[in-house]
Amino acid sequence: MTGVALLAGAAVTGVVLWQRAASAEQESRPARAAGSAIPRPLTAAEQLVADADDPRACAVTFSGEGAPAEPQLQQEGSLYAGLPLPTQDGRVFAGWYPTAADAAAVDATARVNGAEVVACIDHQVELFAAWMTPEANAAAGTRVPILMYHQFTANPEGESGWLRGNYAYIGDFDAHMEHIATTGFYLPTWDELSAFIDGRLYLPTRSVIITDDDADQSWFDLAAPVVEKHQVLTTSFMVTAYRTDPPPSLWVLRRSHTHDMHQAGENGRGRMVNATPEEIAADLTVSGDLLGAREVVAYPFGHHDDTAKEGVRQAGFELARTIEPGVVEIGTDKLALPVVRIDYGLGLDALVSRIG
After folding, report:
1. Among the residues of the chain, which ranges form H helices?
2. According to the model, what pLDDT value does residue 264 have?
3. Which of 93, 146, 151, 271 lies 20 to 30 Å from 223 when distance is taken between CA atoms?
4. Which residues contact 93 (CB under 8 A, 6 or more apart)?
5. Where residue 182 falls among pLDDT bands split at 50, 70, 90?
6. How many angstroms separate the CA atoms of 206 and 356, rounded?
């Protein structure tokens, strides 16, 4: 009995010593604030912003059927760049919208694309996908005019000389841009136009693309401030052998008018119809690299043929714009895009009659 008592006493003593040690260890740990919670892991969008280490970083998340699962990094205060254009068998993508209700209504006035400035709350924004049937897309009958401007003048009487027709009066240009900016026009990006031609993307019936050829000094001095004033997405086709000025406005895209092929060949026609596909591709590669984009090129003088088209393909351009009159529809030749030419004296009423 004495041995049992000793063993029992030893066990009690061990328990007491263990409890004292555990209590001392607990007291030595830092106290957690009352009510504090274990930090949760960052969401994919939050992690994207954190990794960017940019005060203007914005993580765009996509919702709705067919939407990408991963967020995309954009920069607040810039135009949206490279928004995805998802595809689904038997359906046509109808764009991104700020709310599910806008997406369900396919509300063109709310649609978000690369003509819009990124605006975020707490570095995040959510966009919602819309879809329609191919039959509904075809029934819409959208026809997209590409407006082609050249030089500009502040003289209401225009300029003299053989290029008089190229000069748009800046007062007319201002009226054109105000009309487009205030009457519900949608301004597609070039990747959207390409997907529209394929029948993969719906564009609103009141869509228009604005372009300027040559990047003349009058474009910078007179027209670019009007573009900035009305905040309308515009493409400036630049001959990069002559100038590579930075964009004069957030709303101006710089695209290729070739590097050094805006001159006549031996037969009086443009160099693009006198060169080999390899020579054309080499020139366009230089231009694309200088501008940081090679999605669309404007043919100098509008001159093009199958050889020119092959050179454009080899350089990795998907679209090419001519000076042939017409509008872009589903199935239009991507390497022969037509235009609505703007000549001197074309006022607002004349523009409305052409584009609505």
Report:
1. 2-28, 44-52, 100-105, 134-140, 170-182, 190-198, 217-218, 224-230, 277-291, 306-314, 348-355
2. 80
3. 271
4. 66, 85, 86, 87, 129, 130, 131, 195, 200, 201, 202
5. very high
6. 8
Per-position DSSP letters for 223-248, written without gaps between them: IHHHHHHHT--EEEEE-TTT--PPPS
The helix/strand/coil state of 58 is strand
Contact predicate 150/168, CB 8 Å: yes
Return d(Cα 340, Cα 327) in angstroms, integer. 7
- SS3 at position 131: strand
Domain residue extents for the chain: 44-132, 141-355
Closest CA to 355 of 155, 143, 197, 177: 143
User: What angle is formed at CA 317 by the lines to CA 284 and CA 143, rounded to 5 degrees?
Assistant: 130
Provide the 10 A C-beta neighbour count for residue 344. Answer: 20
Q: Are strands 72-75 and 57-63 parallel, antiparallel or unpaired?
A: antiparallel
Integer Cα distance of 9 and 14 in angstroms: 9
The residue behind tokens 């039959």 is 135
Res 270: pLDDT = 85
Amino acid at 334: K
Per residue in 297-320, pLDDT (tens digit) is 999 999 999 999 999 999 999 999
* 287 SS3 class: helix
The alpha carbon of residue 284 and the mean position of all alpha carbons in its chain are separated, in whole angstroms, by 21
Under 8 Å between Cβ of 195 and 295: no
Q: What's the rounded Cα separation, in Å, for the pair 224 and 254?
A: 12
pLDDT at residue 268 in the model: 79
Q: What is the CATH topology of the domain spanning 44-132?
A: Immunoglobulin-like (2.60.40)
Q: Which residue, 216, 133, 134, is CA-closest to 173?
A: 216
Distance CA 59, CA 72 (A): 6
**How many Å apart are CA 252 and CA 26, to the nearest integer?**
64
* Angle of CA points 228, 296, 349, to nearest 5°: 50
Pairing of the two strands 146-149 and 151-153:
unpaired
Question: Token digits for 194?
Answer: 């390409």
Tokens of 77: 């205060």
Q: Can you tell me which residue has the tokens 């060949």?
A: 265
- For 141-355, CATH gives 3.20.20.370
- Please compute the mean of the pLDDT values over residues 172-193 and round it to a whole number: 98
